[in-house]
Design brief:
The chain has 632 residues and is α+β, with helices and mostly antiparallel strands. Helices cover 26% and strands 22% of the residues. It contains 21 helices and 26 strands.
Length: 632
């Protein structure tokens, strides 16, 4: 069992987006980790007692600038905003536990049944507990859960900044409902006041993360669609009343009052008190109506201030007391500065491995990085060992495919990885050889390549240069290091690297193909979703590309097939899963949609006033803060 493996690796290791397990892609300074691990802490024995009532304030520093966007990660995949979203919105019927397992949340769910139907579909029926309320005291019923499914898969919501509306793609009737061809969502039913059901398409079964199909999270219909109602019919559940795109543009997307920017009524452990645009700082206060997490735990810290900080000054702020917690700190300079403060007795620490990896991400739909050979050649131009050494100072390891140090699959496959994966050690001659074989054999004038300068290739009767457009984010130490290591080596191989620095939202728009220009590559980092689903990340179906799951925009049938084989493996069949994972990793290593750079060790550094701090690669700060308290 995966859970058992995780526990055995304690000391060494450490809810998905609907049922799809979307990855979270962020800048190199932050990640969203989500696989089983165990934290190690140097904190002294706690001498204070957890208060019975919330008290005190915790200032949390984040290097990923907080943006004014607090409704749903589908609008904004910023790592900081994602965690704030996790604190504001809650009561999902399926949760991910501290031990690394999916389960129905007993705080939310009174009962549940799963029925396999004769036509091959499967119906999940969930009854909600009585007594759950919104932060304004309004009772939460099954209508609020059904409203979320209807709202966020509707054709009306897709008019709002390209909201993907893909969370229910596996549900019967999704295609007709999202296209606006049906008023009712056939696979969703409001059974009674406290019960809903979801029926999954036969072709989507079996599914590795089967339980996640049952998950829904309430949305406040009385705020987002106040004159509307949810009713049931034989054709499925539907929203009645004046439910229109214009309504949602007002109630969700209006910058002055919309729920996206001002979520006034929520059901998570905290509510949003304020957001300051100038300082990019959010202040959250405890929600006294919160029912508790799956264990019944409620916050003991009254106020959270999530503050945007700079890499250059954040340790000074921690030492001075203007910041109380720095989470997921990485890189040699940052970690060593933090450890100096620990040694001086000024702060405490917790460390854990990363469930993700830093990378150069290719857009495989763009010339010339649509070529496997070009992607491999770029990899052969980079000394990844030296990069990891300079960046991490010994707090990271090189990885050779899409895996992280915290994953149990990696821990079980170390010897296999050493024997089966190409390591892409720096080799300019190998890069030249690959490019020659791929047809990059010409000069700009059409003559045979001279051995210096930019290579050209004849494509459909036209000579095209081997130019790689690279988009990178501002103030990023990884970008700065790559800028010193890549251009000269690539030029020696006959490639030209053109770098453009921009803010992260602009870069994100380019990656999503919604910006003014699409680039060939980006340096990023990714953290694996709890329901890590490679079959969506490398699907050739355009649905998963436009929705951001296949962020490489890669169309490679071999990679798609080897990942699709994992989808129906039973969750408890870890042996088969591991074999299929290894086949996927080997294929990925050859196709190289990313250049994997490193997977590192994270450190949380925090003030001694923070008590009960226990994080891991699966239990991040937004979850751990519920167990913690502060002493003044």
């Amino acid at each position: 069992m995966k859970k058992a493996l995780c526990l055995l690796l304690a000391g060494v290791l450490a809810i998905s987006a609907a049922a799809c397990g979307g990855q979270q892609t962020v800048t190199n300074d932050q990640t969203a980790s989500s696989s089983s691990s165990a934290a190690s802490s140097s904190a002294a024995e706690e001498t204070s007692v957890r208060p019975e009532q919330p008290t005190g304030q915790l200032v949390i520093g984040t290097t990923t600038a907080i943006e004014n966007d607090f409704y749903d990660p589908s609008f904004n995949n910023n790592a900081s905003n994602y965690k704030i979203y996790d604190l504001l919105h809650g009561l999902a019927t399926v949760t991910y536990t501290k031990e690394g397992e999916f389960e129905y949340d007993p705080t939310v769910v009174k009962s549940h049944t799963e029925t396999e139907n004769e036509d091959g579909t499967k119906t999940f029926t969930v009854t909600i507990n009585d007594g759950l309320v919104w932060s304004d005291g309004t009772p939460i019923t099954a209508k609020d859960f059904v409203f979320q499914l209807l709202l966020e898969n509707s054709d009306e919501i897709t008019t709002i900044d390209g909201y993907p509306a893909n969370g229910g793609v596996s549900i019967v009737g999704y295609d007709e409902y999202v296209a606006g061809e049906a008023d009712a969502f056939a696979g969703v039913h409001l059974v009674d006041e406290m019960t809903y059901s979801i029926t999954i398409k036969a072709e989507e079964l079996p599914y590795h993360y089967d339980i996640t199909y049952a998950s829904a999270m309430p949305r406040p219909m009385h705020i987002i669609a106040p004159e509307c109602d949810v009713v049931d019919s034989e054709e499925g559940a539907m929203i009645t009343g004046e439910f229109t795109s214009d309504l949602l543009l007002k109630t969700i997307n209006d910058t002055a009052t919309g729920y996206r920017y001002h979520p006034s009524v929520t059901c998570g452990p905290y509510t949003l008190e304020s957001y300051d645009t100038a300082s990019q700082q959010a202040t959250l206060v405890v929600n006294p109506s919160f029912a508790g997490d799956y264990r019944g735990v409620k916050p003991a810290i009254e106020k959270l201030v999530i503050k945007t900080v700079s890499n250059d000054t954040m340790m000074n702020e921690l030492e001075a007391g203007s910041v109380d917690l720095l989470f997921q700190s990485s890189g040699a300079d940052t970690i060593n500065a933090g450890l100096d403060l620990v040694e001086a007795g000024k702060v405490e620490k917790t460390s854990y491995f990363r469930n993700g990896y830093g990378k150069i991400q290719f857009d495989c739909s763009q010339f010339p990085t649509d070529s496997v050979a070009v992607r491999q050649a770029v990899a052969y131009c980079l000394d990844r060992g030296e990069f990891a050494r300079q960046y991490s100072g010994g707090y990271a390891a090189i990885v050779h495919a899409a895996y992280g140090l915290a994953q149990w699959e990696y821990q079980e496959s170390k010897d296999w990885i050493d024997q089966n994966l190409e390591t892409y050690e720096k080799n300019i001659d190998k890069a030249k050889e690959i490019l020659e074989a791929d047809g990059w054999t010409k000069n700009a004038d059409g003559s045979d390549y001279s051995g210096t300068g930019t290579r050209y290739k004849e494509v459909d009767g036209e000579l095209r240069p081997l130019v790689i457009e690279w988009a990178n984010s501002e103030g990023n130490p990884v970008s700065e290091l790559l800028s010193t290591m890549l251009p000269e080596a690539m030029a020696e191989a006959g490639m030209e690297l053109k770098a453009t620095t921009m803010d992260f939202p602009t870069m994100l728009a380019s990656m999503q193909h919604t910006g003014d220009k699409i680039y060939n590559m980006y340096n990023l980092a990714t953290g694996f979703a709890t329901a890590n689903s490679p079959w969506y990340y490398y699907s050739t179906d355009p649905t998963w590309m436009t929705a951001g799951y296949n962020s490489n925009w890669i169309v490679d049938q071999e990679l798609a097939d080897v990942t699709w084989a994992m989808k129906d493996t039973p969750y408890e069949d870890t042996e088969t899963w591991l074999n299929e994972w290894q086949a996927y990793i080997k294929t990925w290593n050859e196709k190289l949609p990313d250049i994997p750079l490193y997977s590192d060790e994270y450190y949380d550094f925090y003030s001694p006033k923070l008590q009960g701090w226990d994080t891991s690669s699966v239990w991040e700060w937004s979850r751990a803060v519920l167990d913690a308290w502060v002493t003044e």
